[in-house]
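#struct-help
A.M.: can someone run this one for me? Single chain, 119 residues.
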Amino acid sequence: MVGASEWIDRMTVLRNCIFILPGNGRVPDSKEMRLVYAEKITDWGEAAERVDVRLTEVGYIFQFAVLEGNELSTGEVMRRKKAVKESYTCQISETFIFFKENSQPNFQAVRRSAIPIRR
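D.P.: on it. Structure tokens below:
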């Protein structure tokens, strides 16, 4: 279960990611872009997936997808699937957000106070 302070951190990360991803900082309609993965990183220095040494200490990985087409049944009552039109990955620390459109090879860096992470 996620506690209140962790929830606040995650929402702050979400707002900062939305600000830098395509859409000019407006909150996307849930039909346009969805958060499909979120992971807390307890130490970027130990994270194999870290894309840059400027990611330090505590942070997050968020992945977003822009979906298209009709929903397809999966055979599970509460689960549907749709085609992914584009997807984005954000790696976040207290001072940097690295992001990329997943069809592109490289991450871009944005220096901003990303999250007031509580240790």
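A.M.: thanks! The chain has a mean pLDDT of 86.
D.P.: also worth noting: The beta strands are 33-41, 59-73, 80-92, 96-101, 108-111.
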